Amino acid sequence: MAATFEELFRAARSSAYHLETRDGYEQDEAYAEWQAGHRFDAAERWPWWIELVSSAVARGVEVHRARVISEPVSSYIRYEHALTSGHNIKAGEEVRWLPRRRASTLLLPGNDLWLFDRSQVLFHHFAGDGRMTGQELVTDPAVVSRCATAFDAVWDAAVPHEDYRLDG
User: Fold this and answer.
1) What is the pLDDT of residues 116-125, one digit of tens each?
2) What is the pTM of this model?
3) Which of these, 157, 156, 22, 132, lies nearest to 77 by C-alpha position?
4) Domain carrying residue 91
5) How many domains does the chain have?
6) Residue 66's domain is classified under what CATH number?
């Protein structure tokens, strides 16, 4: 039986890096509420994420998230940006944003991914409407190396969350 995302995350010893490259994902209930003007505490809504990430960080795991985004940003990216401080950062993640125009010279994977300990890549597959359609765990050292190189390039070029402004 294949390991679940949570099992892979909990097994990470040194790093868990997430590369996001889409301008929108499945429009769930939380996003619909946010669009309607209801602001909520993301940490209260998703406490499992706070626990998962904070426990990893406490045992010395670096948790980084890099988002490649188009500008002007989509409504969904505005939503993610609004929730990042109270959700991702609060949990212990470091988050950076890379405007897509600054990624033109980078070689990027075709799918979002999680890179665990630079030894495993979990690709996320999405439909055009942002619905996740599956995951694929890859341990081939050549693929893992290419994904690590791509993540590092994005990370180095990206703007830390606290410095990134949506409108300028």
Assistant:
1) 999 999 999 9
2) 0.96
3) 22
4) 5-163
5) 1
6) 3.30.870.10
